[in-house]
Amino acid sequence: MTSRNFWVAGVLAAVMVLAGCGQSSNDQDQASGTNGSDSGGQSVNLIFGTGGTSGTYYPIGGALKGVFEKSDRIDNVQVVSTGASVQNINNIMDGTNQIAIVMSDVAYDALKGNKQFKGRPAKIDAIAGLYPNVVQIVALDGSNIHSVADLKGKRVGVGKVGSGVEASAKKVLESAGLKYDDLARVSHTGYADSVTDMSNGNLDAAFFTSGVPNSSITGLMQNTKVHFVNVDGATAKKLLQKYPYYENYDIAAHKKNEYDLANDVHTVSIRNLLIVPASMDDKVAQDLTKRFYNYLGSDSVSVAALKQFDRNKMNQNLVLPVHPGAKAFYKTIDQGGSDSDSGGTNDAGNS
What we know:
The chain is an alpha/beta fold. Helix content is 36%, strand content 20%. β1, α2 and β2 form a beta-alpha-beta unit. The termini are far apart.
């Protein structure tokens, strides 16, 4: 082969390599829906990070799979069970997940590059705020526990080590001027074990951070005389000032589908979020948001937690930026646009 033929062969090989690289990039963008621009009508595949199969996140993912797959912009949604918030954000950061449910406190730390995300802030956006996880402190009648400060010298269940329940318990205790050393005993028990220990008189109180009602608390109330402890006053004020992802929350009295309490309980909550990569295609994010909003207004909602918040406020008071595509949809709602599902995406401009 002459030197000229070697040169031509080399050029052709280089062109083929470059073409192959370009195709790989396009395929990756199509699979993830994260090319950051208009996808040009191409449908994308999404991997939906949820939580454990026995929790609430996983069935929400299952319910939304069919909702999102009705979109012409979505080819397939794969719902996966994960370790929940921290793993979901890590998966979005490395491209494993393209949509996920997380708690606001973990999302806030990820956005700021704090704690387990130190030095690597996440580029994530919210498309919707979901139901709140409510901090519920339940104490035995006769325990003389009527405030968070009264937990001093008591035996308290704070949730499993590293759980969201324990994270909330530590912050609430801290806001009341207490540390673990101030308690008679710290029990790292989950819901079921906390209920058992309280029923047996081995715990004076326990933290539950979940939606309302919590079935473990409901079961405890059937066999044991207990009461709720308010997280309010100076304790709540200090908590909300230091941790912006907390909100005031009242568990209303006389609601038979909850705890049918005689009096309101004043406490705090942490909101769950539906998040996507900040780089997600605007039109895809807009259509996901629209379909989720319309689903919440239908008679098809099967997961109780999705009935526990106002869909018209799901873009308000979030600790993450709202994705520009989601903003475009919410703008149409704010302007009184129709929320009917026409099958396609609404092409209103970004706000």
